[in-house]
Amino acid sequence: MDEVRGGLRVTQLDGPEARVEIAATTEAAVAAAATMVLVAVKSAQTAEAAAQLAGVLPAGATVVSLQNGIRNQAVLQAALPRQRVLAAMVPFNVVRREAGSYHRGTSGRLMIDDDPAAVPLLDACRAAALDIEPRRDMPAVQWAKLVLNLNNAINALSGQPLAAQLSQRAFRRCVAAAQREALDALAGARQPLARLTAIPPRWMPRLLTLPDAVFSRLARRVVAVDPHARSSMWEDLEAGRRTEIDYLQGEIVALAETVGCKAPVNRALVELIRAAEAGGKRDYTAAQLCAALGITS
């Protein structure tokens, strides 16, 4: 393995900077002696990562899915029947500022399946003062995170940092509309949702549509966001990578069809992101995006 030149620089929303010396490689063979593997690839690459790990991981190893979406654990487990696969959730936003430099731009607590196999990771996170919680309701956690992640596409299409985008009521109305569709579909499917913020998931659309001055005061109590934060989908578009739109808005569209609901806002966001992936517009003003999504005042 090669050493990352200069080490890894990690900065926090509300904490000190850390520099860590790490070794990096693209060869899956180095996992042959691993007892625990953390999977953090994009959802579209999960099957490929699982296939590579299947050829080298020892039986009994623990694999932790630290990914967006709701299907990755099942994909990994199907390819890795001799390993224990756990679901986990990363609540906070991480921005790559430059090569080897990463910044945590929002607040939140890691969550992972409440399972004996998770103990080494729980111990390591706690030793590093990284907040983590074992949960027995990870499907509810993952769906709740997906509902929050519906803003990823809107942020990516705005071309603005999260704080700047969320400071504008018209952009927030787009997020609220996407979330309402998701909440209706999830209610139809009788899928419980975990409470990941200071307010219940069903209250979030109402908070988002409040006037700017009221929202700015209340939002700080729900989740902290600093000026550097941007959605990972914005980063994917910047880098010319395939986004996770099918695993976010796409999941809501599919679920809505299953339970007999409609999800036109989420369907339109899928189409706009696919167009952006192909080189299309991704600097929408709030008014332009409302118009593109059919949202009227």
Series of H and E elements? EEEEEHEHEEEEHEHHHHHHHHHH
CATH architecture of the largest domain: Orthogonal Bundle
Helicity level: 40-55%
Broad structural category: alpha/beta
Helix count from the secondary structure assignment: 13
Strand content: 5-15%
| Oligomeric assembly | single chain
Task: Present the secondary structure layout.
Elements lengths: L1 E2 L4 E4 L6 E3 L2 E2 L11 E4 L6 H9 L7 E5 L5 H8 L4 E6 L4 E5 L2 E4 L5 E4 L5 H9 L4 E4 L2 H12 L1 H8 L3 H5 L2 H20 L15 H5 L3 H11 L9 H8 L9 H11 L4 H14 L8 H8 L4
Parallel strand pairs: 2-9, 5-6, 6-7, 10-11
Antiparallel strand pairs: 1-4, 2-3, 7-10, 8-9
Brief sketch in words of this structure:
The protein has about 300 residues and is α/β, with parallel strands linked by helices.
Structural account:
By secondary structure, the chain is of the alpha/beta class. It has two domains: 2-134, Rossmann fold (3-Layer(aba) Sandwich); 141-293, N-(1-d-carboxylethyl)-l-norvaline Dehydrogenase, domain 2. Helices cover 43% and strands 14% of the residues. It has 13 helices and eleven strands. A five-stranded mixed beta sheet has the order 5-6-7-10-11, with helices on both faces. Strands 3-2-9-8 form a four-stranded mixed beta sheet, with no helix packed on it. Helix 1 (46-54) runs parallel beside helix 2, helix 5 (151-158) packs across helix 10 and helix 11 (249-259) runs antiparallel to helix 12 (264-277). The termini are far apart.
